[in-house]
Every structure is written in structure tokens, then in C-alpha cells.
Amino acid sequence: MTVTIGIARETAPGERRVAVTPETCKKLVTAGAKVRVERGLGDGAHFPDAAYAEAGAQLVDGSDDARAEADIALCVQPPGPDAIARLKRGAVLVGSLQPEADPARAEALRANDIVAFPLERLPRTTRAQAMDVLSSQAGMAGYKAVLIGAQLAPRFFPMLTTAAGTIRPSKVLVVGAGVAGLQAVATARRLGAQVECFDVRPETREQIESLGGKFLDLGVSAAGEGGYARQLTDEERAEQQRRLGEHLKGIDVIVCTAAVPGRPAPKIISAAMVAGMKPGSVIVDLAAETGGNCELTRPGETVDSNGVTIAGPLNLASSGALHASEMYARNVFNFVSLLLKDGALVFDWEDELLAKTVWPERPAS
């Protein structure tokens, strides 16, 4: 029996990315699946309907038609509870779903027996890298954040020697050396800035320096398990903030990217630190969606605090929708390929990538 895969247009405000591109659509069709795509799916990411049709997709009108009787539904942002209730009972849903963040969404998934695969739950293993949507989208966000900082800053990033004298390069500090942070380091260096990166995990030094940045050592380590940072003690945080506050007085642009999975973003830059920064400085807070690394960040807004500009952009990956979609769709295709065996839908619960990603969790056999 042919597996039907349905993809509807994203409805979240400002979301332009897609979970399937013409490239991955063709691969799914080649794998034996029937792909149904809502008309206009790729308009925001510049993938025309004709490209999907050429790739073998069936174009349909309306989100319900695209998902009607779909064995597998793909998405970027999670569908609302009503849309989930209209999915085929027992269908598979793959995307960035965050079921724990919305009780109504979680209940809708349970009530309709949906086999949900929230890709943010994917184990961080070497084999899973090709499916890692968090990393692929964070890369785009880190790149865009630096461009926002350069646009808001009243300074050049590179050093310039002109007839009017020499312009000194901007000093950029990236907070957090995850995927977004490292991409920010690389981008700021390409623009010619002097770049430092602060991370409480000392093992990130080599990665930062390999990209041309300088590791900012504040004498506080929060190395944790699985490559993530642990939470600091009150004493460690106080010492970290004292040293960081002094350092920020000479910084022109800060890009904040620090996050702790499943928790609000750690508050690293206090209002007092911002008050000590020089006028014209800029803070771009990528952690705004989970509360922000800066105490004064307002999610979705750009504000001024005594001459310091603080931007809290949301869903930055969507602003680079074409390339972000290409990466996201390849991640999704690689994961869905684990479910397709000879054109049929098969669940191999011995595969840790399926067993550890599925929600609700399956009891151990």
C-alpha cells in the first residue's frame, strides 16, 4: 500500500519556511510515497507550485485536502489543536512540534492517537546530524543576527583606512558557542570585526579560535553533560556577571545565543551591565523566544536603553527562508526515510532515533 505524505501551508505568523522542497519531494516520490502539497506552500520561500508538480507532487486546494488521509504529515511549526484533530487517526506527524509547550496541542495529539516525532527531541548523536533541525536552523539564525547587528550599529565592522583617517574595527562579543554562536563568530569575522566569544564551557575554546574568534575566559566553567551547559551556582553567576560587566564597557555589538534545552534562557546581561555600555552599542538577543539572555530584551521588539539598542528578533531562520527550508527539508527527509521501507510505513522501535524522538514515549519492550 502506497504511503501518502501531506504538507499544508504554514499558518504561524511570519513563518515562510517549508517542510518539503521540490528537491526532497522528488526524493520522497522516488522512495515510493505519494506526496500531496497545498497550493502556494512554497510561495514565502520562493518555491513555485510548478516546481512541486514537476517533482511529482499532487497539488491540492486547502490544508485539510493536503493532509486528508495522509499517513505522514510534515510541518515546520506545529499545527493547532483543531488541525491535529482533523488528521487521519493514528497518522504520523513530523516537525518541530514542542508538545510539552501547549497542553491543548498535547491533548489533541493524544486524543487522535497521533504518532508524533518532535524533531527537537532527536538524540544528539553523529548518526542524527543529518536530521538535526535545531542545528541547521540555528546556523541561519546566527548568520542573520550578525547582519542585524551590523545594520543597527552606527559603526563600520571592518577597519578602514581612508583619506579622512583610519576607522578602527568594531568589537563584537558573541555570547554562547553553540551552532548559532559559532556561525555568528564566523560571520562577524567575515565582515571584518574583532570578535570574541564567551561560553561557560571551556571545551568550546578550540572551535571559537578555529573560526578566528578569541575565547573570552571569565574564570567560570559550567561544563555539563552531552555538550550542554549546566546551570551555574549563585556564587558562580555573581562572579561571572561582575567580570562580564567590566568587559562589556568596551564592546560595540553583542550577539546573545545562550540557551538551556527545555528551560527559560539564562539571564546573562543585566540592566546594570547595559547601563555601563557606551552609547551606540547594540545587543541582538537570539534567545528572545525563550525570555532572552538580556534582562531588558523584549521579544519581537527593538528598544533603546539610554543609547544602547536591544533587538529581540523572533524566528530569524524564517528570514532566510529559501536556504533554511532547503536544510530543514533535507533534515526531515532523512528522518522520514527511517519510516519508509519498500514504500511502506514501518516503525522500527529498535532504532534509537525513532524510539527516543517519538512522543509520547513508547514503553520499553
UniProtKB/TrEMBL annotation:
* Domain Alanine dehydrogenase/pyridine nucleotide transhydrogenase N-terminal: from-to ranges: 6-141
Q: Which Pfam families match?
A: AlaDh_PNT_C (PF01262), AlaDh_PNT_N (PF05222)
Q: Which CDD domains match?
A: Rubrum_tdh (cd05304)
In this chain the Alanine dehydrogenase/pyridine nucleotide transhydrogenase NAD(H)-binding domain maps to 150-312
The record's top EC class is translocase
Answer yes or no on keyword Translocase.
Answer: yes
Reported EC number(s) for this entry are 7.1.1.1
Q: Which reaction does it catalyse?
A: NAD(+) + NADPH + H(+)(in) = NADH + NADP(+) + H(+)(out)
UniProt similarity note: Belongs to the AlaDH/PNT family.
Matching entries from PANTHER family are given as: NAD(P) TRANSHYDROGENASE, PROTON-TRANSLOCATING NAD(P)(+) TRANSHYDROGENASE
Q: What does this protein do?
A: The transhydrogenation between NADH and NADP is coupled to respiration and ATP hydrolysis and functions as a proton pump across the membrane.
What name goes with this protein? proton-translocating NAD(P)(+) transhydrogenase
